[in-house]
Design a protein that fits this description.
Layout lengths: L10 E7 L1 H4 L6 H12 L3 E8 L3 H10 L4 E5 L10 H7 L1 E4 L1 H15 L9 E5 L4 E5 L3 H23 L10
Helix pairs in contact: 2-6, 5-6
C-alpha cells in the first residue's frame, strides 16, 4: 500500500480552473496545496489537471474524470468568467446547499463580508461521482477540504445506498 492513504478511501481528482495558470503566467499554488492536504488526510489523489475558464474545458474535465470525487478550484465568484459552479450544477443530479452555507459561515468568521460572494458548491452527478467547487485561494482550499473530508465518505455511502438501513455518520 502507498504511504499516506488507504485503498478503501475515495480517490480525488483536482481540477484547477484558471486562465493564468493554464497559460503558465502563474504558479499553481492552490492545486498543489489541495494535493498535499488530501494526501495528509489519507486520501488518494489520482491526478491534477488545469483548465481554462471555459464551459467546454470544465465540462470535458468533468466528463473524462475517472476519480470518485472531483475537486474544482476556482470559478466560484460572481464575475462573468466564474462559471465553474454553473457547469457543475447544470450536469448534476443533486446539489447539497448545506456545504456552501457552512463554508460561507466559516469563511465569514475568518475574513468577514467577502465570504458571502462565493458560490461554493457540492453536487452529486448522475453517475454517482461527487463534484465540489471551491474558491481558488489557499485559505479557501484548506477550509473547503477540511469540511469535505468530514462528510465525503458518508456522502458516498448515501449516494450508493439504494436499499437497506440508513447508516449514521461516523
Amino acid at each position: 500500500m502507498l504511504e499516506g492513504f488507504s485503498l478503501s478511501r475515495p480517490c480525488f481528482q483536482i481540477i484547477v480552473v484558471s486562465d493564468s495558470v493554464a497559460e503558465g503566467l502563474q504558479e499553481d499554488i492552490s492545486g498543489e496545496l489541495a494535493k498535499r492536504v488530501l494526501v495528509t488526510k489519507g486520501f488518494c489523489v489520482s491526478s491534477k489537471v488545469v483548465v481554462r475558464n471555459s464551459y467546454r474545458e470544465i465540462l470535458k474535465a468533468l466528463r473524462s474524470a475517472e476519480s470518485r470525487v472531483l475537486v474544482f478550484l476556482g470559478g466560484t465568484g460572481p464575475g462573468p468568467r466564474d462559471i465553474t459552479v454553473d457547469v457543475i450544477e447544470r450536469v448534476s443530479w443533486r446539489c447539497l446547499p448545506g456545504f456552501g452555507e457552512i463554508f460561507r459561515k466559516l469563511a465569514y468568521e475568518k475574513i468577514g463580508g467577502p465570504a458571502i460572494l462565493t458560490r461554493t458548491a457540492l453536487c452529486v452527478l448522475h453517475d454517482g461521482k461527487i463534484a465540489v467547487a471551491l474558491p481558488g485561494s489557499p485559505d479557501a482550499v484548506s477550509l473547503g477540504l477540511d469540511l469535505l473530508a468530514q462528510v465525503v465518505e458518508h456522502l458516498i455511502e448515501e449516494v450508493d445506498r439504494f436499499e437497506g438501513p440508513h447508516k449514521l455518520p461516523r
